[in-house]
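Private note to self, pasted from the team thread so I don't lose it. Backbone tokens:
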């Protein structure tokens, strides 16, 4: 269990910390070299990106560490602590599954640009869907959306 946790938890943490750390260092050092009328906004986005990367790494640790601690405890405990490890396992499994979906949630909460991009994608999907309808289907759909029917509204 210790080796599995080392490989599947500590190795990804090391990679995340190293790679995101390099990105953060590059962004942090380049903030002094920003010039031009949009330098202040780019510096703001650099700081926002650094914060987001730190939160993503922290979320990964918080969501996955209990799972791996629970695995080690479960493998090494006696029957007396069985109930405690079962509750710990339940909580860690909830965090485990949350960890699989938390990044988009964090991006949505922390980044206005992300929310705008998602909104744009969703609106594009609606436009694409409406373009694929025939003219009579569009007319019928528009009339239903307005609460009208094509007959008897004269």
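Design output:
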């Amino acid at each position: 269990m210790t080796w599995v946790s080392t490989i599947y938890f500590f190795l990804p943490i090391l990679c995340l910390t190293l790679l995101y750390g390099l990105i953060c260092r590059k962004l942090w050092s380049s903030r002094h070299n920003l010039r031009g009328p949009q330098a202040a906004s780019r510096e703001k986005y650099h700081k926002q990106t650094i914060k987001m990367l730190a939160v993503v790494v922290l979320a990964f640790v918080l969501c996955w560490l209990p799972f791996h601690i629970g695995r080690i405890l479960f493998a090494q405990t006696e029957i007396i602590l069985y109930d405690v490890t079962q509750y710990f396992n339940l909580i860690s499994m909830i965090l485990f599954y949350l960890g699989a979906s938390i990044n988009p949630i964090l991006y949505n909460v922390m980044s206005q640009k992300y929310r705008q991009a998602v909104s744009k994608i969703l609106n594009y999907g609606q436009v694409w869907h409406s373009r694929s309808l025939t003219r009579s289907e569009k007319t019928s759909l528009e009339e239903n959306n307005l609460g009208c029917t094509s007959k008897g509204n004269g």
